[in-house]
Predict the 3D structure of the following.
Amino acid sequence: MSPREPSAVPPRQEGAAGTDPAYSDWAFNWVSTRPVIRGRSYMVACGHYLACVAGLRMYSLGGNAFDAGAAMVFAQSVLEYQSYGFGGEVPILTHAAADGRVAAVSGNTRAPGAATIEWFREHGLTQIPGDGFLPAGPCAVPDALITVLDRYGRLTLEQVLGPALELAANGFPMYEGMRRAIAQHEARLREWPSSAALFLPGGRIPELGDTWKNPNLARTFERLIEAERGARSRGRHAALRAARDYFYRGPIAREIVAYQRETQVRDATGTVSAGLLSEDDFASFETSIEAPARVRFRGYDVYKCGPWSQGPVFLQQLTLLDGFDLAAMGHNTVDYVHTVTEAAKLAFADRERYYGDPEFVTVPMRGLLSAEYAASRRGLIDPRRASLELRPGDPHPFEGAAAPAETAAVEARGWE
């Protein structure tokens, strides 16, 4: 290999960071060390390169972007335990190129039917714990991803789950982010024997590069695939539904419910308790497809999931920032960062005050996302002083503001 010519290296600004330690002979451009990815047919992106490979494989099987997205999320449930798991949640936004429609898939869990305010009061709990069994709801990921595949995909669940199954059964190299999370939570993991056996094999933190496997999750994937195979003669929709029902109305749900009912663990508040989930909680769980929240920002339509997530916070930030000349401030200057941060504070204050599940509470979304409401709040941003107060506003007077035409049309058409 011929040595790199110094003249090919872009000049580095005075005071900028030095060379990348992995390439000490090469002075990278200070702007980025990542290559720009370009393509003409398709593209995938996610948090782990092996999950990206899973998505790419779907195209070679004749799948589409929805198959690729589901494959990556399944794979990430194996690869990125420190951030997300198969038993968790997965809010999804979809865009169908055929008709240009954007939809929100509510991959959000629900509280168990027994998790009432009265129950918590009777047990002397003033807040829902941050971990343990008490805050757990039915696993939303399987239903949300199968719903996406059923509505938009082309491939079988077996094809889409294939890469995740391989990763769980055969393992993958332990990497820095996951190992760091295991080390950080080692003491907590040891309180759960099954978690300790999984994340601390042999009683120790895995070393970088060690092959890490999740055989129980692999077996769960295999059982879903077997359920789909058994119903494939009845068509793709019925086969996907059979796999879904095997999880939520079959033995997997029963096993989850039995385990958390018979096992007591200590949660973040110090309370030792079993869980509240019932088989009915799983059997009645259904993912919905709904119209997303939307604002128009400087020529772009920006979409987020509804107020059952914190997605609309970003939309509120945009409506607030629409009244500022951010370009004139200069990217990441003191004024720029201050203005963006103060707008975020106002938006998050509204989240704390108004957001919730629209099936249970009334959320004034039209007012919260209206340009008029943003204009009324914009003056609270002091260009010279950071606010230390939680300052929710009153969007109700702005509820009569007209909804964006496209959103109104989507709501009128509804989702089958």
